[in-house]
């Protein structure tokens, strides 16, 4: 075999290997970036859903402490958020959200609280934070989601 052919084949093989390496590296980088973008969007969706649920549930629970007439539309919205969580969230988060809704509905059927009674409940630290378990579950889920 002629030395010129060996030299030409070596150069050609080097070019092919270099091109494949560059292409593979680009593809892996794009794939990694796309996965990071999907993860970021999913995390944002969950954060927004949990924030909206906390705001709506807090409002409904506050209303339940002083009223015996549940606003059906607000409760339906809470159940709609719960249904979205069933699709997106871990079982512990969904279960905790369900407990918040049940506690809120039960509070509507309990005797209304006066400001003085609320002050005593707050001082005792019992029964005033139905969102505590949900908040912890959501925080834990978001943390594990970030580290996937």
What's the SSE blueprint?
Blueprint: H1 3-66, H2 72-88, H3 91-108, H4 115-124, H5 132-146
Number of alpha- plus pi-helical segments? 5
- The portion of residues assigned to helices is over 70%
Strand content: under 5%
Helix-strand makeup class? mainly alpha
- Sheet with the most strands? none
The shape, in one word, is rod-shaped
Overall tally of structural domains? 1
Counted beta strands: 0
What is the string of SSEs from the N terminus onward? HHHHH
The chain-level mean pLDDT equals 87
- The value of Rg in angstroms is 28 Å
From the N-terminal CA to the C-terminal CA, the straight-line distance is 55 Å
User: Can you tell me the residue ranges where pLDDT is under 50 for at least 5 consecutive residues?
Assistant: none
Molecular structure report:
This protein has about 150 residues and is mostly helical. The chain has one domain. Helix content is about 85%, strand content about 0%. It is built from five helices and no strands. The longest helix is centred in the N-terminal third of the chain and has 64 residues. The protein is rod-shaped. The protein starts with a helix and ends with a helix. The model has no long low-confidence stretch (mean pLDDT about 85).
């Amino acid at each position: 075999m002629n030395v010129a052919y060996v030299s030409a084949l070596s150069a050609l093989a080097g070019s092919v290997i270099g091109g494949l390496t560059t292409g593979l590296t680009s593809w892996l980088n794009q794939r990694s970036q796309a996965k990071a973008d999907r993860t970021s969007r999913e995390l944002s969706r969950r954060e927004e859903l949990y924030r909206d649920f906390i705001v709506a549930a807090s409002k409904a629970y506050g209303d339940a402490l002083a009223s015996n007439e549940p606003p059906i539309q607000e409760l339906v919205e809470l159940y709609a958020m719960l249904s979205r969580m069933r699709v997106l969230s871990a079982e512990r988060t969904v279960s905790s959200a369900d407990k918040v809704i049940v506690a809120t509905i039960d509070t509507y059927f309990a005797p209304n609280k006066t400001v003085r009674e609320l002050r005593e409940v707050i001082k005792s630290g019992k029964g005033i934070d139905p969102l505590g378990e949900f908040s912890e579950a959501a925080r834990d889920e978001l943390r594990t989601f970030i580290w996937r």
